[in-house]
Specification:
Shape: globular
Number of domains: 1
Mean pLDDT: 96
Radius of gyration: 13 Å
Bound molecules: 1,3-dihydroxyacetonephosphate
Family: Belongs to the methylglyoxal synthase family.
Helix content: 40-55%
CATH superfamily: Methylglyoxal synthase-like domain
Order of helices and strands: EHHEHEHEHEH
CATH class: Alpha Beta
Strand order of the largest sheet: 3-2-1-4-5
Strand content: 15-25%
InterPro entries: Methylgl_synth, Methylglyoxal_synth_AS, MGS-like_dom, MGS-like_dom_sf
Low-confidence stretches: none
Largest sheet: 5 strands, parallel
Number of strands: 5
CATH topology: Rossmann fold
Distance between the termini: 22 Å
Organism: Reichenbachiella agariperforans
GO biological process, one term: methylglyoxal biosynthetic process
GO molecular function, one term: methylglyoxal synthase activity
Number of helices: 6
Structural class: alpha/beta
Length: 123
C-alpha cells in the first residue's frame, strides 16, 4: 500500500497526530509526502519519502504518481480557511484522484474512515 500524505500548514500537527495514532495500521505502508508535511512526519518519528514542498511543485509530483496509478490512497488535510498560491496544483491533484478513481480524503474524519475500512477499527 502506497499512501500520499499532505497537509496545509494549519493541519500539519493534526496530520502528524493522525499518522501516529494510526501507526499500527500503517506499519506495512509506504508513505510519500510533500516536503514540509514529510519533515513534520519525520520529526514525529515516521518514515516517509519527501517530495518538493507543495508550493514548489510537491502537489504536482504527487499528482503525477496518481496519474500513473502508483498510489493507492491520498490523505490531503486541507485548510479550508487558507489561501494558497499554488491552488491550481491542489485542484489538479484532487481532479486526477477523481479521473483515476484513487481514494482521496481531505479531512481527518474521512481519512479515518478510509483507514478503518482498509484495516479495520483498532479502538
Ligand atoms: O502545500 C501543500 C499542499 O498543497 C503542502 O506542502 P508542504 O507539505 O510542503 O507544506
Amino acid at each position: 500500500m502506497k499512501i500520499a500524505v499532505i497537509a496545509h500548514d494549519g493541519m500539519k500537527a493534526e496530520m502528524v497526530g493522525f499518522l501516529r495514532e494510526n501507526e499500527d495500521k500503517l506499519v506495512g505502508a509506504e508513505l510519500v509526502a510533500t516536503g514540509t508535511t514529510g519533515s513534520h512526519a519525520e520529526k514525529g518519528g515516521l518514515k516517509v519519502h519527501k517530495f518538493l514542498s507543495g508550493p514548489m511543485g510537491g502537489d504536482a509530483q504527487i499528482a503525477t504518481l496518481v496519474a500513473e496509478k502508483k498510489l493507492d490512497l491520498v490523505l490531503f488535510f486541507r485548510d479550508p480557511l487558507g489561501k494558497h498560491a499554488h491552488e491550481p496544483d491542489i485542484q489538479m491533484l484532487m481532479r486526477l484522484c477523481d479521473v483515476h478513481n484513487i481514494p482521496l480524503a481531505t479531512n481527518p474524519a474521512g481519512a479515518q474512515l478510509l483507514l478503518d475500512g482498509l484495516y479495520g477499527k483498532s479502538k
